[in-house]
Specification:
Length: 294
């Protein structure tokens, strides 16, 4: 039995002979320069990326990781916690990344409270929809029992184009991306949970907001990637994860970006940076197209 289990796991986590997605390693400097040179075509609009997803998926850690890549050092501005079982983020937070003294990159990240499995906990779907429209101000503390009221001091009655969300980013950890034969069934996305995520997607569709998905914790999900992150697009396991996530949630596969967030490192790594920059460029390109079409 032990040998059979080992053989199945070996096949499940095997590395394919060829990459199933082309990502040239060693181009970090070029990709980083593209982001640094980016300026919105419409000068009066800064892109706004809002992250949502299950509690503990790594939304805050992804913001910190992007910040770390662009500044060349490990950054911990967005509060994250590896022990907290619910959503560690309780406020609507806006993060601008410094570029030079007194200036910032022309895009903003919004971090929100996570969705939780238990009904009545986590961010309400109505708050997510209002935030996408720009009606929620920075530092608003979410209330799981009721969405923000119009008379609340953090309610933005007349949002500008820059205050509205231009790209909706669904953050899903690789450990719960939905494979039915995962060892721990409790880690799967439940049907009710999927319905909530899907409802957010449909609301974004109705607003015309483009979406991408970030698949986090890939080094924990696949041992081969944990050993060498350059195996990410040779991983049979992650390829299947992305196919299943696409089939169950509706994201096109080329809109799903696997990344490894910084969490234990004290220095940045070029290969980790390459994946994060790939996702960031996808967000920028989607947001730019959306703004230009308005």
């Amino acid at each position: 039995m032990g040998l059979m289990f080992y053989c199945k796991c070996s096949l499940y986590f095997s590395v394919l002979p060829h990459s199933w997605r082309n990502l040239p390693w060693g181009n970090k400097v070029r990709d980083l320069q593209i982001v640094k040179d980016y300026q919105p075509f419409k000068e009066d609009v800064q892109l706004r990326f809002m992250l949502y997803g299950p509690a503990g998926a790594g939304k805050s850690s992804f913001i910190n990781s992007v910040d770390s890549v662009l500044r060349g050092k490990i950054i911990r501005r967005a509060a994250a916690d590896s022990l907290f079982r619910g959503s560690f983020t309780t406020q609507y937070r806006e993060f601008k990344i410094p570029k030079a003294p007194g200036t910032h990159y022309p895009f903003v990240f919004n971090d929100i409270m996570g969705l939780e499995r238990e009904t009545g906990k986590g961010v309400s779907l109505e708050d997510i929809k209002l935030a996408m429209k720009g009606h929620v101000k920075d530092r608003y503390k979410f209330n799981s029992d009721s969405p923000i009221a119009e008379d609340n001091q953090y309610y933005n009655r007349d949002p500008s184009q820059s205050e509205r969300v231009h790209v909706l980013v669904c953050v899903i950890p690789g450990s719960i991306a939905g494979l039915q034969n995962d060892n721990n069934p409790s880690q799967l996305l439940t049907e009710d949970f999927e319905k909530e995520l899907r409802e957010v997607r449909l609301a974004a569709r109705d607003m015309g907001i483009p979406e991408i998905a970030i698949l986090t914790k890939i080094d924990e999900a696949c041992p081969e990637v944990g050993e060498d992150i350059r195996n990410v697009y040779k991983s049979k396991y992650l390829k299947k994860k992305i196919e299943v996530l696409s089939g169950r949630m509706g994201f096109p596969q080329n809109c799903i970006f696997p990344v490894k967030n910084y969490h234990s490192e004290i220095d940045t790594n070029d290969h980790t940076d390459t994946l994060i920059l790939s996702a960031l460029r996808g967000m920028i390109e989607s947001g730019e197209d959306f703004v230009n079409d308005l």
